[in-house]
Amino acid sequence: MAEKTLPPVDVVVVGSGWAGSIMAKEMCEAGLSVVMLERGKRRSTARDGAYPSSLDELEGAVRYKLFQNPAQTTVTVRNRSDQEAVPYRRLAAFLPGAGVGGAGLHWTGVHFRAPPQDLRLRSHIIERYGRKFIPEGMNLQDYGVTYTELEPFFDKAEKVFGTSGEAYTVNGKPTGKGNVFAPDRSDDFPLPPLKDVYTAHLFRHAATEAGYHPYAMPAANASQPYTNPYGAQMGPCNFCGYCSDYACYMYAKASPNVNIMPALRRHETFTLRSNAHVLKVLLDSTGKKATGVVYQDAEGNHITQPAGLVILAAFQFHNVHLMLLSGIGKAYDPASNTGTVGRNFTYQNITNSTVWMPPTRNTDQFIGSAGGVAIDDFNSDNFDHGPLGFIGGSPLWVNQAGVKPIAGAKAATPGAPRWGSAWKKAAIDTYRHSFTINAQGSNMAYRDVYLDLDPTWRTSYGQPMLRMTFDWKDNDIRMNRYVISQLANVVKALGAQDAHYGMREPGKPFDVRDYQTTHLCGGAVMGDDPKTSALNRYLQSWDVPNVFVVGANAFPQGMGYNPTGLVAALAYWSAHHIRTQWLKGNGGPLVAL
Amino acid sequence: MPDTPHRPHPAAPLTEQPHSLAAPLTPAAPHPAEAGHAPAATHTATRRHVVQGLGTGAAALALGSVATAPAAQAATNPPAHPASPTQTDTPRFFSPAEFALLSAACERIFPADAQGPGAIALGVPHFIDGQMDTPWGRGELWYMQGPHRPDAPANLGYQLPYSPQQIYKVGLAGVIAWVQQTHQAAFETLAPEVQDSILTALEQNATQFDALPAATFFEQLRSDTIEGAFADPLHGGNRHMAGWLMMGFPGARGDYMDWVDRYDTPYPYGPVSIAGETADHG
Ligand SMILES: Cc1cc2nc3c(=O)[nH]c(=O)nc-3n(C[C@H](O)[C@H](O)[C@H](O)COP(=O)(O)OP(=O)(O)OC[C@H]3O[C@@H](n4cnc5c(N)ncnc54)[C@H](O)[C@@H]3O)c2cc1C
Ligand code: SF4
């Protein structure tokens, strides 16, 4: 193993997913030299999304071809502080990306803006329900940035991603379509919504009949050929059904690889290094200034890359891990309730319900995309929480990204046999005639749910693993159960033959064996108070002002929507302030302490 | 450091691949009209009939064993299909005794029945054999470093020191010995009801083989059996896409542009595999 120091650059970006690609593009546009370091392989749609070889469920969704290999690095998990955490040895509950494009190459593409009240949830809850409404132990916080401030950046991200959807109002004018709960927009979606698949169509009608307000889900899957502001081209989505977990051979699903990299590569000041696993951010003797990063290359050499500005965009928990390993900010200590790095770790509170249509109806679950039909009647604070006594909510939707037969056959039909002829018949009937309705809910932050370094297990790089202490809490369990109880009205209107309502069971702990989502949030959150946030409202470290940390780690709590729309908007927001303020200043904090 | 204002790029259209100008707007999906293979539909019934006729575990096993496989193959496969190269292969990872048990157990988990062929006709045991010699089989896709805490709560996930290869080696040896002890016979020679009761005992974790709980072995076997029945035939199972035909899955078509809004109209095309094999709905 050799050690080497490279010539300095203006900016080093850690990670090549959406967050890293947006930041790198913006920094190149500002005329800076940028080195992007990606621990995984080079990846491209042409190779990793080739037709037909990439339409391989075993390789893509069972052996996790495009995902992080836990043999290299993983986390440890426990439910409570008094337990020993143990390694997450096999991928299941969440699937972090690895390789150029990050999880952006194989995400699905559901592309939301954040509800305005979610961005200032603490203030909003206190205004509407009073301070006492917030349960003991819940760290409810504001983002420190408002929807109005972020709106131009949501808009920019949608144009870069080629997002399909239907607006409710544009500059205050109703369009007659869209989500009645959606905030106002400065412009329409760049593309019209995707068509409803059959099951989404059924849901739309049943939800209307039940008195709710269905809308076409916004999706970064191009409903038509599209050229984005960077000049990158997308083809139209053909509902191939291999959306989640796969690269899109139609070039229709937005990815950093399709939508940003081609333009990024044109900047002569841009360099991408793959197989470069960043071990830590280097700080000077004051601990207040980053001098660069050290990474391990494919041959095991340790390479120092000096840089004037360090942008961590390695994904939510990897960002937190790198901060803890590097000593950026103070590690959170739940006992004394001090420190911010690792604090407010949250997830997404999803449960899935299955609806069986009569055997004469084929639900064609193999057709799919990131589109679908949702209702927001029980999301966010769109309903009166006063009599209910919990905080948070959940959209309900049919978001059929394409069900393949291994996943279809493994899906458990509650109460039915798990193997043998009776199971086989049930599995086939379920695959052919059922569909899934997801309740993808918010997850609040709690004092005893957090991230820190594990004392026992190490990654293949010899570093302490990140430790997750996570469990479902009463507020979130009750939220989920309430929302699911409302689903019965829709199911009745569907004319379904049978339904299984998936909901959180009190006392049943977080289970790493079931895929839920990869919508992990928090751990290094943004905010106005350095005592409760690791980052200021521009995603700048309070402690080391030439480090910006971009990703869902910045969310103070988990929202009902998917995170990436907000991650991208926050990246553009942060980049804008780096370009217009930080680069013009002395490299200090953008928010005075 | 200088700054430049935000402005959209006036650049020419860009695609991810530096040398191609346009994104592929039309997929290369094989269309039924282009199908080069003879339809397999008429043979599905034959295959079902033959497999159903095999009442006992011993006969079911024989279907997958080396000696009788060519005959079984002739009877069960549509002549239009070239013989699958793996069909007569002897297992590479498993010993004959292990493979006999594995085959019989897979067949009980995924039996031939009115729905269609079972695990043996689908090539599931060969699929599992093939998977052993992959990075996954060798445990290279799991975090395998110690210390191991096998007694950690189940909801915190797999904590054993075994790779998939080791799960099978330990599990199959364990089941062979256990069945010998409890039934004085090999699993594959027992009647299906008896085999089922043994599998149920494994599923309910009635015993343990070294540090391997019987239920862990059973769950691995169940999961891999399902994968073998429904993965692309490229991996050695799902022979002639019979698993997909049963499920009504069109395989690697990956193009429903014309079908997405033809609601409640049965999708008319049978599956296509990555290698381009096609089949019609039975
Ligand atoms: C199957 C799936 C479906 C999803 N669908 C949706 C959806 O429909 N809508 C939605 O909003 N979100 C979705 N998500 C989540 C979405 O993918 C993420 O929110 C998003 O990709 C995060 O972008 P990121 O840039 O922050 O991180 P990533 O895309 O994970 O990129 C981070 C990159 O950093 C690299 N990296 C990590 N550590 C290091 C290191 N130490 N050194 C160097 N490089 C490092 C990683 O390899 C990775 O490539 C989905 C996720 C998955 C897995
Ligand atoms: S469903 Fe559409 S966007 Fe998704 S992978 Fe298929 S073609 Fe691409």
Automatic annotation (TrEMBL), chain A:
Task: Enumerate the Pfam families for this protein.
Answer: GMC_oxred_C (PF05199), GMC_oxred_N (PF00732)
Tell me if Flavoprotein is a UniProt keyword of this record: yes
A single Gene Ontology molecular function, please?
oxidoreductase activity, acting on CH-OH group of donors
Q: Which residues form a coiled coil?
A: none
Q: Superkingdom, according to UniProt? A: Bacteria
According to the entry, every stretch annotated as the Glucose-methanol-choline oxidoreductase C-terminal domain falls at: 458-571
SUPFAM superfamilies the UniProt entry points to:
FAD/NAD(P)-binding domain (SSF51905)
Query: What keywords are annotated for this sequence in UniProt?
Result: FAD, Flavoprotein, Oxidoreductase
Q: Fetch the Gene3D superfamilies from UniProt.
A: FAD/NAD(P)-binding domain (3.50.50.60)
Ranges where the Glucose-methanol-choline oxidoreductase N-terminal domain occurs: 229-347
Q: Which family does it belong to?
A: Belongs to the GMC oxidoreductase family.
Name-wise, this protein is GMC family oxidoreductase
Which source organism?
Acetobacter malorum
